[in-house]
Amino acid sequence: MPAFTVEIQASNADQSVWQALHPAENTEGDSAETVAVDVAQHQTIAEGDNWRVCVWDGNDADTGRRAAAEFYAEDL
Fold it and tell me: What's the CA gap between 44 and 36, in Å, rounded?
């Protein structure tokens, strides 16, 4: 299975600034998209609608670059 780096982030009201709620963690899965959805459905860190799950390819991903997949709370 491919390796991914996952981070749950929260934002301000207009989603112009995103901040990690917890250090990024490594996981494995079928695809970045399926990992993002699974983490979003089972996360217990964030509340409300201003959060997202970002997933990058690899165990040592550069979280400063664009994520391979994102899943927003509003899509649950």
Answer: 14
